[in-house]
Amino acid sequence: MDFIRNNPLQFIKLYCKKIYYFWWFSPQSGTIYPKIYLGLYTYIYLIMGVFSAFGALAALLFRGKRTRDNAFLLVFIIMSICLTQSLFYVEGRHRWLIEPLLMVFVSYGITEMWAFFIKKCRPVTAGAAV
Predict the structure, then answer these.
(1) Structural domains in the chain (count)
(2) CA angle 81, 72, 58 (to 5 degrees)
(3) pLDDT at residue 124 in the model
(4) Is residue 128 part of a domain?
(5) Residue range(s) defining the domain that contains residue 109
(6) Is position 59 within any domain?
(7) Which listed residue, of 29, 112, 118, 126, carries a Cα 20 to 30 Å from 11's Cα?
(8) Of residues 86, 66, 74, 69, the one with CA closest to residue 11
(9) Does 47 fall in a domain?
(10) DSSP letter, residue 5
């Protein structure tokens, strides 16, 4: 508490850095495992992150009230875990707690992206464009 009182800007800077490390990888990530494991997990996590972000945005912005409310609840849970874990301690394994919740948005993101591309790529049949 003394450090926070005496160095509020440094505390905020370090806290933001810990939030970043919560969502990405800290310099200590994968030090006790073969590098290929971290590399493989990084690619999987990156793909998961893209679809999760797309799914969360689609649910929050483009769907009905019930979907928005459910998505907001999941985002609230995910962010509360992120913010509290980052306050006390950060290590990559702490993110594993939210990855099942992110998978909900991953599946929603894949479904929404698939529907978008199917709609855009559907050929126009003769007589349909009247």
Answers:
(1) 1
(2) 115
(3) 62
(4) no
(5) 2-121
(6) yes
(7) 29
(8) 86
(9) yes
(10) H
